[in-house]
Write a structure and sequence with these properties.
Blueprint: E1 3-9, E2 19-24, E3 27-32, E4 40-50, E5 53-58, H1 79-87, H2 92-108, E6 111-119, H3 127-138, E7 144-150, H4 161-170, E8 175-178, H5 186-200, E9 203-208, H6 219-228, E10 235-239, H7 248-261, E11 263-267, H8 269-275, H9 291-296, E12 301-303, H10 320-330, H11 336-344, H12 348-353, E13 369-372, H13 377-383, E14 387-392, E15 395-399
């Protein structure tokens, strides 16, 4: 073996004993106690290990632009309108620099797999796509990146966008997305997205049903098309803040429908909490979908970052564990099993959402391993514990030293 990571906890059950993970040629070769090998040793000291954090929904291309956009006026955010004029000035080099900085922060916080949404329309052309695709190649030593092309400002009402989406799919994008609320024909956009998914045999990941009331929800059409096109397990909807406005019985019925047709939900607590309830001047709703409730009713869910340092989310450090902690605070989650489920929404559930066949701490899988300064998943979420070491295919990519008190002599 080339590497042995000693004394890690796998976080699978309470009171488990530490084990060793042996790595050979970039893959997990053994998981057992007391592995004997003439190999590089990393001593984990009984800390938690997972198969890398999985970012399912982020916008690398428009991160770190808050200083370029017009300031927010009052409680009206108008994030898309504030970004649109700035987007026209993006260059490949500019997108690559900003997105690269964000990407490196994600890697430092333990992310080893990622789906990033990339905007395509005549204003930006393929410049953002070119930049992100170059990062996909250049950072393959640390992270696997999947591109989802989508129209942010409309599709049916924005001539030239459709052709760019087709170009992105032909150039290797594995997912087609959308944002129908910004289209004059929301249903038409959704139908076109599913038609492209069938034509190119790609997954679907749509920004959907962002709002404070459960009226006029597009999820019903998405569910019907998922059935019609037999895409169960390959469709994800992001945001879904309207779910937060549903009473429990209606939400349970909706969850059963999503589970039955195979639609996953990505909740984006940082962005949704920041943007929701802008029409209110008091008793502002949180507006964040209850991922734990959905999971408990059979829906696969992930928690993700969405935006970093732009008008939709003018903050962020790219820590998925912090995102899970935020979700737990917003939804008042405190029980250990539910906190553990929040951690699964950064790991196993996110991997399932991305249809990753080789994810997990199992013999034969790639040795993508993150050692976190915690003993259990629930402790990692509750205390926002940081990764201390990250390995990608058996090669260490991140070093972080635990903080140390310097006591007086």
């Amino acid at each position: 073996m080339d590497l042995v990571i000693r004394n890690v906890r796998l976080g699978r059950e309470a009171g488990e004993q530490p084990v060793d993970i042996g790595v050979e040629r970039g893959r997990i070769a053994a998981i057992a106690r007391g592995l004997a090998a003439d190999a590089e040793i990393f001593e984990a000291g009984g800390r938690l290990a997972c198969a890398g954090l999985v970012e399912t929904h982020i916008h690398l291309d428009k991160s770190r632009i808050i200083d370029r956009c017009a300031p927010e006026v009052g409680r009206e955010s108008n994030q898309v309108k504030r970004i649109a004029p700035v987007k026209k000035l993006f260059t490949v080099e500019d997108v690559r620099r900003r997105a690269g900085e964000t990407l490196e922060q994600c890697i430092l916080h333990g992310t080893t797999r990622m789906r990033t949404h990339v905007e395509l329309d005549p204003a930006i052309g393929m410049r953002g796509f070119d930049a992100i695709q170059s990062l996909q190649r250049d950072y393959a030593w640390a992270i696997d990146i999947e591109l989802c092309v989508f129209p942010q400002e409309g599709l049916t009402n924005y001539p030239g966008t459709d052709e760019l989406l087709v170009q992105g799919l032909r150039r290797g994008a594995k997912v087609i997305g959308g944002a129908p609320r910004y289209d004059t024909d929301a249903a038409g956009q959704i139908r076109r997205i599913f038609a492209l998914a069938r034509e190119f045999d790609v997954d679907v990941d749509i920004h959907l049903d962002f709002g404070s009331t459960p009226e006029a929800m597009d999820i019903h059409l998405v569910a019907a098309l998922t059935e019609e096109y037999r895409l169960g397990g390959r469709v994800t909807v992001g945001h879904m803040t309207k779910l937060s406005a549903m009473p429990p019985d209606q939400l349970a019925a909706m969850a059963r429908r999503l589970a039955d047709v195979g639609i996953a939900v990505t909740v984006l607590p940082a962005t949704d909490l920041f943007l929701m309830g802008r029409e209110r001047d008091h008793a502002v709703p949180r507006g964040v979908a209850d991922a734990n409730f959905l999971v408990e009713h059979g829906v696969n869910c992930s928690l993700s970052t969405n935006n970093v340092l732009n008008p939709a989310t003018p903050f962020g450090d790219c820590s998925l564990i912090r995102i899970a902690n935020l979700q737990a605070n917003i939804l008042q989650i405190s029980q250990a099993p539910r906190l553990r489920e929040c951690f699964a929404m950064l790991t196993q559930r996110s991997a399932r959402l991305l249809n990753l066949r080789d994810y997990g701490l199992a013999i034969g899988n790639p040795a993508d391993i993150v050692v976190i300064d915690a003993q259990t998943p629930e402790q990692a979420v509750a205390e926002i514990r940081e990764p201390l070491a990250v390995f990608k295919r058996g090669r260490r990519t991140v070093v972080r030293h635990p903080p140390q008190l310097l006591r007086p002599q």
